[in-house]
Amino acid sequence: QNTRQIKYYTSNEVFSIGTLANLGGLTHLVYSECSSSSTLLYLVLGNASTLQVLNLDIDNPEQVSQFVHTDAGTQVTYPNLHTLKSVCASDTVVEQRSAPLHTPFPELRNLTMTHSYPFTNDAMFRGNHLGQLGLNLDIIDLLILDKSGVLEKNRFAQVTDLDLEINLIDQPYGTGFGQRLCRMLLEMAPNIERLRLRFMGIPLKSSLQNSFAAVPPLDKLRFVTITGVALSLAETVGLVGRIPKLSQLMIEPQTTDYEDEDYEAEGALRAEEIRRVEELRQAKTLSRSALRNVIFHNPSYADMNGASHFACQLAILCPRLTCIRWGYHSSAFDSCCRDNAADTLYSAYKKRLESVEWTKVK
Fold first, then answer.
1. Considering only CA atoms, which of 79, 75, 82, 68 is closest in space to residue 28?
2. Burial (0-12, 13-18, 19+ Cβ within 10 Å), 67
3. Minimum mean pLDDT among 108-122, 250-264, 286-300, 339-353: which range?
């Protein structure tokens, strides 16, 4: 009788969620099941006035569409819902999407949608003031949001935490579309403090670089994660230079290693890299950068040597950079970086590199 929160994670027939259908006054509902359940619909609709948190792991996004109206056509509003997370199977095909005319989620502050958007208009975003937004969408979803005005400039001025994963694999959209998409996604939330980006199926590098160059500097952005693409040192420098208050960066570094142990060729390569780094350092390209922490995402041992040079060169360019961490195998990465610092190649920067922590982020 005093239950206010339910977590349901199983489709085991021994315990049926149907026994909970008549519960009222719920504030939190976390649901994860292999198959759809009509009882879930009754449970959500029956607690529409009190629900504050709704976390769903379902196989059919059309269920979310059913939450905003009854079978009789009555519009349903969730006046206290501030957090909604809807995760669907990646291969889900939405056959029917509704177009609610009312404002079903007026108080929503945190929204995460994975793989499928259930409406044909902006109903999910109407009237609310999101602070956290996470979208993992395909091309159909994106076109719906674009047509509905959801991706307009400054649409999410209050969003401070933005997590985007866009899948355009096997879609006939080239660099132009990718650049437009990147720019729109950056412009729609100009006050973000945390940004996580993963694009699949588009030429992300050029799109990302051009988009950051095209939009006004994101003056409040402090934490950035970019995965799905490997950035070169020059590209990383360009990106960091466009984000003046960036404090922590997580990336996949683009590195060069010589598996055939061609030490002469590698030595020439590193010497040329140092020459370019010195040119950038003298130009004070990142002299005012606030970057303090760098994390290399999803690395492997095969990348370690090249990544250690990448790390040392980035540390030379960013005077406030004090911590660079290898996602895993941190002790081996620490050894590589310290070996570099002691090498004659980096002798001019030995003191600077000795001040860097290579195993953890502060």
1. 82
2. buried
3. 250-264
The answer to whether 1 and 26 are in contact (CB under 8 A) is no
pTM across the whole model = 0.86
Q: Does residue 305 contact residue 260 with C-beta atoms inside 8 Å? A: no
Rounded Cα gap, residues 309 and 30, in angstroms:
46
Crossing angle between the packed helical segments 263-282 and 304-317, to the nearest 10 degrees: 20
At 12-36, the pLDDT tens digits run 444 455 556 567 788 998 887 654 4
Residues 248 and 294 sit within 8 Å (Cβ to Cβ): yes
Q: Which two tokens stand for residue 42?
A: 């009754």
Alpha carbon distances (Å) from 111 to 173, 276, 278, 311, 347? 27, 44, 45, 35, 50
Amino acid at 187: E
**Are 252 and 303 a contacting pair, CB within 8 Å?**
no
Residue 322 corresponds to which tokens in the numbers above?
């004090």
CA dihedral 309, 314, 317, 319 (to 10 degrees): -120
